[in-house]
Fold this protein.
Amino acid sequence: MKTILRSALLLCMLAFSLQSCEDQDDVMSPSHLQVNDFVWRGLNEVYLWQADVPNLADDRFASKADLENYLAGYSRPEDLFQDLLNKPISKYPNGNAIDRFSWIVDDYTVLEQELNGISKNNGLDFKLTRVAQGSNDLVGYVRYVIPNSNASTKDIKRGDLFTSINGTKLTISNYQSLLNTDNYTLDLADFNGSAFVLNGKTVSLSKTTLEENPILINKVIESGEHKIGYLMYNGFYAGYDARLNQAFGDLKGKGITDLVLDLRYNGGGSVRSSTRLASMITGQFEGKIFSKRQYNFKLMAGMTADDLELLNERFVKSIDGAVINSLNLARVFIITTANTASASELVINGLKPYIEVIQVGEITTGKNVGSFTVYDSPTLTKTKVNPNHRYAMQPLVFKIANAADFGDYTQGLPPTYEQRESFKTYGVLGESSEPLLNLAISKITGATAKKVQTEQDVVLPEISNSKKINGLRNEMYLENVPKEFMRTLK
């Protein structure tokens, strides 16, 4: 009898064990398949070009099993993500890309820091170009040094050049690995008129977790009857909106007559911060439309009249209860380069229906699309996020236009007065003799601008820059998943 009971008990335990395994298989799939499911589900719901990607169609897969089989074909979520984008830059690098800016990360904590200007950084801002047309060798140009950083304690400044790292020549194939390390030594160089030559000087740098204050320079330049406010602003980080308002308060208190806003190295950021900056420049357009968003067809089809109103960003009069220090200007001068992107371009385009925007420098990047962070949760927000991984996406989810419905500037916003930056004439940022600022001042005062030499042989297309290498991308994003999206999410 005991033997029979023992056998029955063992059979029950085995059956329970097998059933538990089956239930666990139903609930928990391998980690990368959970991420793959999240990638497909998120892009299917919010991706701007969802209708243009056949594999994201609602009726693409006949059953859940068909979708799972498709997803199982990808061992890396990053590969699936790229395959579900609409002509991504990774696959169309020679000018035919449609999606140049969507990305995915395997740790959303790092992404959240990057969107607030926090990165592993030694404080040296630079760009990289080829040393000559057709060459695979690269040269780095120091653009500015972030205050209170490791680089700020070293003997290095704007205009310095480097061609090697740790004694190894910089090339197209090795620059990412050399510059992605936490510690490295730059081998500085000079330009002798035809080539870049090492000069024997070195600078050793170390990266730390660094939060960059985007307000690099805020000053007043007096020229004749003009009191010109000059503000160099390098990122639209929401945590600095109050300090930006204080900076405008300083300019307002000093009675400036004109404003030069320097966005030459500003790759963008928060849409709300962009709207607030535009409201500081003006002030006379409170409540009027600054910009309009448009989502994919599926999301737009589900929107009510109230939802459609939420797509409009309007000029504001306060920041978290504090009155905005508005300048009430009828014109603004904005300095731009090819690194001026996203939320920076939004300021330019959003102001144009209302005041005179005089753009000085180079044509901008051409990013008229934006995103918000998509998490693996039932609502694609961080609420009830999947605890089994930290993947998140920053896909393009909206296109943006100004109050006059203009938003087609994917080729960039051209300057009113064109002048390219050249390392030979970089000058000191914030000084009236610096070429791009000097040109802006000359247009304000009517004086003759300083003549600048810009030989084509030393003004070469940019390969990369320190912001990209440190994870800071050209971005225009909504800080939270918008209400209109939450209402239409199925």
